[in-house]
Every structure is written in structure tokens, then in C-alpha cells.
Amino acid sequence: MGVVTVLLVIHIIAGSVCLLTGSIASIAKKKKGNHTTIGEVYHGGYLVIFITSLVMAIVNWSESAYLFYIAIFSYSLVLLGYLARKLRWRNWLKMHIGGMLGSYIGIITATLVVNGSKIPLVNEIPSLLLWFIPTIIGTPLITIVSRRYSSRTKPKEFIQ
User: Fold this and answer.
1) How many distinct structural domains can be found in the chain?
2) pTM exceeding the 0.90 threshold for the entire prediction
3) I need a surface site. Which of 36, 67, 126, 130 has the fewest CB within 10 A?
């Protein structure tokens, strides 16, 4: 098995972990404990995705250069969300929600774009549309969730 194949297997496993932990974190009670532990696993998995994406894009630059830039953009979102929570920046809660949900939109988009042709019903959607559907659906959700938590909870009370 070649290096790229090993990286791809690691990448797929980390992506699966992020898809699972991202969905669990989104429904978990927002307090220290399960939500924060799952968030740590999500961030760690996304870091693995980021590193493997960069290496695979560099190795196959002529076909995969765009993945290099997508990896940087997507990981910057999860890093923003992660650090906003850890460092308690001003408006950290909105940045946390936006970064984490934005990165989840990124991983769903990547999954659909790469695997959409193999998924029944999804394979009938034009491939260009698969690049935009998660953002079209996810962006209003980010706004709704941000408003919900910022109006209900003072940031100091959220995830102590």
C-alpha cells in the first residue's frame, strides 16, 4: 500500500469521525462535559483531515490543487470556532457557533462532492449544485442557532 493510499484511509476515517462527532455535538447539551469532549475529538479529527488533505493535494498537485485551498479554508473555520471558545474572545459564542457549524458545512460539502455520484438520489443532483446545497441550507442554520443562544444565554453562562 502506497503512502497516498494510507493517507487516504486515515483521511476517510478522520472524516467519518468528524461527521459523527459534529452531529452529536450539535444535539448535545451545551455545557462542559459531553459537548466539550466531543468538540475536542471533532477538532482533532479535523486537524487530521487538514494535514492529510494538504499532503495529498501537494502530492497530486495537478489534479488536486484546489483541495489545498479548501483544506486551509475549512480548517480555518474549525480553528476559529475552537479558539474562540478556548480563549474567550470578544463575541466568542457567535464565532464558536459560526466556525464549528461552518466547518461542518465544509465537511458535508466535501463528502457530497467526492461521493455524491455513488449515493442513490444524490447522484441525480448536478455536481455543481452539491458544492452549494450545504451552504445554502447551513448558513441560515448558523444564523438561527447564533440568535437562539445569544438571546437565551449570556456568554459567561454558556459552557463554563
Assistant:
1) 1
2) no
3) 126
